[in-house]
Write a structure and sequence with these properties.
Blueprint lengths: L2 H4 L6 H6 L3 E5 L2 E6 L3 H10 L2 E4 L4 E6 L3 H8 L11 E8 L5 E9 L4 E5 L4 H10 L6 E4 L4 E7 L3 H5 L15 E6 L2 E6 L8 E7 L3 H12 L5 E2 L2 H10 L34 H10 L3 E8 L12 E4 L2 E12 L4 E9 L8 E5 L2 E7 L6
Parallel strand pairs: 3-13
Antiparallel strand pairs: 1-2, 3-9, 4-7, 4-8, 5-6, 6-7, 9-12, 10-11, 11-12, 14-17, 14-19, 15-16, 15-18, 16-17, 18-19
Helix pairs in contact: 3-8
Length: about 375
């Protein structure tokens, strides 16, 4: 058996091959990294709309009278504040307050849906199952679920005629249960690009119908398919974290700069005591956004040393060339003393390239 044959394949694998996508191993799946070039696909999402296959992600359903309180104890955001047909970003932590995974939690009419990172499905769902009380049922529905992400400033406009529901009534992080191209679907106004758009959950056996309909509808608008390469540059331009690079089980939620989804006042949850202690003692590290301003094409990559006022204070966790800015950009995990520095630099191939701190989105 070849390496390609041993990899998992999403329900849309044949569509990617037919489109000539360059396929790579990602989290144990054979996935499209690009179709007609990362730069073109990046700009497609920023200017029109792009279609991603993210069916490699893991989906789990929780039902029962105790589901809300259980999820409130297990995750950092306030589940009690989550209204019907709403979603939010949240974290699973270990007892040390470090990140087991980041995920989106969706509250549907009769159940909760969690979507976790592909590489963490087994670990996350074992973590959930190990803590499961008797009044909650949990089911892994990853294999039967396809997930498409339709993202960009024209995404809603192009999608609307294909849906038997009013998408204008769906707010950011809102959810609609409707039909897309005649296929029953859950649509959530969420995504990982910083643009407007929808993530669309459908039965795996009908994913190709929805994929084809979106591409056909989007083609006159300059929309098209997008691979994992542009997905990474898009999320980094908006300073969206990537599990396994910007955070993991050695990085606390506060160090990762994700305190905004940690609701300390909601009551007890896994990792709360450790985070409270860290706040009282002082968070030892911080995550910074850095834009490289040194003349020339200097592209920071993971593990490049970061300097503050001439002293090495940490390293890049995610770095790339920004197609929008045409400069290098990075997220970095550094000593907290670096927050007060006057000057920053990133050591790229033994040269210290000047950089400036950017506190929120790069674009």
């Amino acid at each position: 058996m070849t390496a390609s044959q041993s990899l998992g394949k999403t329900p849309l694998h044949a569509r990617h091959v037919a489109l000539g996508a360059r396929m790579v191993d990602f989290a144990g799946f054979e996935m499209p990294v690009s179709y007609d070039g990362i730069l073109a696909e990046h700009r497609r999402v920023r200017e029109s709309a792009g279609l991603f296959d993210v069916s490699h992600m893991g989906e789990g359903e929780l039902r029962g009278s105790g589901a809300a309180s259980f999820l409130d104890r297990l995750t950092t955001n306030a589940v009690a504040d989550l209204g019907a047909h709403q979603a939010h970003y949240t974290l699973l932590l270990n007892r040390k307050g470090c990140v087991v995974d980041d995920l989106i939690l969706y509250r549907l009419a009769d159940r909760y849906l969690v979507v976790v990172n592909a590489a963490n499905v087994a670990k996350d769902f074992e973590w959930i199952s190990d803590h499961l009380p008797e009044d909650v049922d949990f089911r892994n529905v990853s294999d039967e679920t396809a997930l498409l992400a339709w993202q960009g400033p024209k995404a809603a406009e192009i999608l609307a005629p294909l849906v038997d529901s009013d998408l204008s009534a769906v707010p950011a992080f809102g959810i609609a249960e409707a039909r897309v191209a005649g296929v029953p679907a859950v649509l959530a106004r969420t995504g990982y690009t910083g643009e407007d758009g929808f993530e669309i959950f459908v039965d795996a056996t009908r994913a190709e119908t929805v994929w084809d309909a979106l591409l056909d509808a989007g083609r006159p608008h300059g929309a098209g398919p997008v691979g994992l390469g542009a997905r990474d540059t898009l999320r980094l331009e908006k300073q969206l974290r990537l599990y396994g690079q910007d955070m993991d089980e050695t990085v606390s939620a506060l160090e990762a700069g994700l305190g905004w989804v940690v609701k300390m006042d909601k009551g007890d949850f896994v990792g709360r005591d450790a985070l409270l202690a860290q706040k009282q003692e002082g968070v030892p590290r911080a995550t910074l956004g850095l834009r490289v301003t040194e003349p020339g094409r200097h592209i920071p990559r993971a593990h490049c040393p970061v300097l503050a006022d001439g002293e090495v204070v940490g390293e890049v966790t995610s770095g790339t060339f920004s197609p929008s800015l045409e400069e290098g950009i990075a997220l970095a995990l550094v000593d907290r003393k670096a927050l007060k520095a006057a000057e920053y630099a990133v050591r790229i191939r033994n040269r210290d390239a000047r950089a400036v701190r950017v506190k929120k989105s790069f674009v």
